Hints:
7-stranded mixed β-sheet
Amino acid sequence: xxxxxxxxxxxxxxxxxxxxxxxxxxxxxxxxxxxxxxxxxxxxxxxxxxxxxxxxxxxxxxxxxxxxxxxxxxxxxxxxxxxxxxxxxxxxxxxxxxxxxxxxxxxxxxxxxxxxxxxxxxxxxxxx
Length: 128
């Protein structure tokens, strides 16, 4: 079973940038659909971006579209989330997740219930 470890979170001022990493072990990243989710304080977990195998589908939530970019480095078994123009409302715990089911990532949504493996999360705090 693939194991996922996120890193790269931290405290940043509004307008700043962060790049989150999700390192996978125990599996080949190219075989997995990968998603990024966040849980903001007092809110439900939200799927913010995902990429299916071969990157044929890439999804971004409206709240991050144009500011966040998901990318893969299959050689290093790592998926990234580049976050630019950060806003205070981007504050939350960010999780990466994977599934080898072929589901989970769609053109208009990312369904958390269809991902089987989750990282421990990394905290992102954006100050105003």
